[in-house]
Amino acid sequence: MKKLWLPALIVLFVLAACTSEKPQVKEKESEQGATEIETKVMDDSVQVASLVDSRLQEPKEDTVCEMCNMKVYMKDHEMGVFSGQAIKEDGTIAFYDDIGCLLNAEVANEENNAKFVRDFVTKEWAKVEDVTIVKTELKSPMNWGYIYFVNKAEADTYIQENSNAYMEKLQKIKDDALERRKKMMEKKAEGENGDSSSMHSSDMNHGQEGHGH
Predict the structure, then answer these.
(1) Dihedral (CA of 154, 155, 160, 163) sign
(2) What are phi and psi of 15, to 5 degrees?
(3) Per residue in 105-122, is it b (16+ CB within 10 Å) or e — as a string?
(4) Which of 28, 30, 58, 106 gives a 20 to 30 Å CA spacing to 181?
(5) Is 91 helix (H, G, I), strand (E, B) or coil?
């Protein structure tokens, strides 16, 4: 009988060992799955960045905004992160000092441009449609204060670390830019009308003075 019990005990021991190994195998599989997901996320971010047009250029020291004629800051300047550029349908490049000018250029010039902004972390160009846009309290050239992230996780981190920052939709910025442009054009028109009235009054006064003599 003792000889029969010995093989049975060995079998039970082997089964117990196999059972204890299964959770470890599942744990390793879970870790492997998580790693694959993280790798995929990183690959997606790289893929977005790799789609940037090879025709893109960098502004020079004397580059000015196509819309407002203000200075466009270079990549290594603290204001350079707000710069934008567009590739027009004919392949020409235009630079902008801030996102409002970048967006309004299409309206003002009746164009359909490929529009690019800088990633806040890498300072590399990315399509404005492909980035996560964050409204901040940072001072930008035209006081828009928007920064851009290719990697949404980095945008989330920035917002967590800056309580007044929040994500904004591109369409909302387009609408705001158009509204600001509309008000500027109205103000400009009023100024021109005021100058015309002033010149007309001046001419009348000169005419009356002439008749007096």
Answers:
(1) positive
(2) -60, -40
(3) beeeeeeebbbbbbbbbe
(4) 58
(5) coil
- What is the reported pTM? 0.68
Q: Which amino acid is at 156?
A: D
User: Could you tell me how far CA 64 lies from the centroid of its own chain?
Assistant: 20
Q: What is the DSSP string of 54-73?
A: TT-----TT-B-TTT-PBPP
User: Rounded distance, CA 47 to CA 132, Å?
Assistant: 15
Tell me the per-residue pLDDT of 133-162, one tens digit each, with 9 for 90 and over.
999 999 999 999 999 999 999 999 999 999
Q: pLDDT tens digit string along 37-96?
A: 444 444 444 434 446 789 999 999 999 999 999 999 999 999 999 999 999 999 999 999
| Alpha-carbon gap, residue 120 to 99, rounded angstroms | 14
